[in-house]
Amino acid sequence: MQRLRALLRKFKVTIMVIPNADQTIRQKPINLALVFLVLMVLLVINIALITTSMISRSKAATLDAENIQLVSDMTYQTDKMNSLESINNARLEEILTLRETLESSVTYLDNRLAAIEEADSRIDTLVSMFNSETHSDVEIPISRSYDREAFTLTSQETRTTDDTIFEDIENLIENEEITNIIQSKMDAYDALIEQMETQLVYLDCRPDLLPASGIFTSKFGYRKDPITKRTAKHNGLDIANDKGTAIRAAGTGIITYSGYNGDFGNVIIIDHGYGYKSVYGHCSELLIEEGTRVEKGTLIAKMGSTGKSTGTHLHFEVRYNDTPINPATILNLE
């Protein structure tokens, strides 16, 4: 009986529930729509969160890069400050060193000035001797005027502070007058040495050495030709002596011709440079080949009577810019 009552009670409940189930079925689309809407909202919120996270990460990466750059810049600036500090310390040490060595520097500079004066005196004597011995006209370098007192600092007793010493150092360094004087003297001496060396080379090349010993039988100028008996210009100087007499180069140069040449017979021509050439004609024997450089006084040939000649002699010519000039002038025979 109780079981029946329980079943009836259950049936009653079911009958009462059935209308609620129908209502639930009718509301299911609405519930689904609500669920879909909630899901969409959640999806939008999730997308927004993801986007915000990505933006935050990008900003964080940018900030990290900027932070790294700032750290690098700070490190660079720190290194630069350390470098400047090192330079400053080094300069301070240099200043201290300059202060300690100022007096010895002044003494050194004063000694250099004295050496310059002594060198000037020796150069004057040297140039005078050079010109006298070589009959040159080398000019003495113009001495640059300077005031020794301008480089002589006051004594230690007159200095009241280190600032005075420091000012002396600055003036000495900034002025650089003593350095300029020494440099100008060195330049002048170098130029003088170069000029004297050039002059010596020129004098060595100049054909002013008598090429052979003997008797002067015919001078430079117009004369009666010994063969044609007509008046003609004689472009050289004839020196007569025994056959085989030594003929030497009148100056340093290069032999540009060594061979037989018509009226001159066996002849040698030397190019001395500086516009000078010398000719040695009627030789019996030629000892040096073309293209050979010979020094002044070198044995180049032997005297003879080859070519158009009436006897053993040397026909010696000097040409300047290819124009014959009087050899007696070059040889200082007049």
UniProtKB/TrEMBL annotation:
Keywords assigned: Membrane, Transmembrane, Transmembrane helix
Domain of life: Bacteria
TM helices/strands, residue ranges: 30-50
CDD domains: M23_peptidase
Matching InterPro entries: Cell_wall_metabolism_enzyme, Dup_hybrid_motif, M23ase_b-sheet_dom
Keyword Repeat: no
Matching Pfam families: Peptidase_M23
Domain M23ase beta-sheet core positions: 233-327
PANTHER family recorded: MUREIN HYDROLASE ACTIVATOR ENVC, PEPTIDASE-RELATED
Protein name, UniProt field: Peptidoglycan DD-metalloendopeptidase family protein
Source organism of this protein record: Fusibacter paucivorans
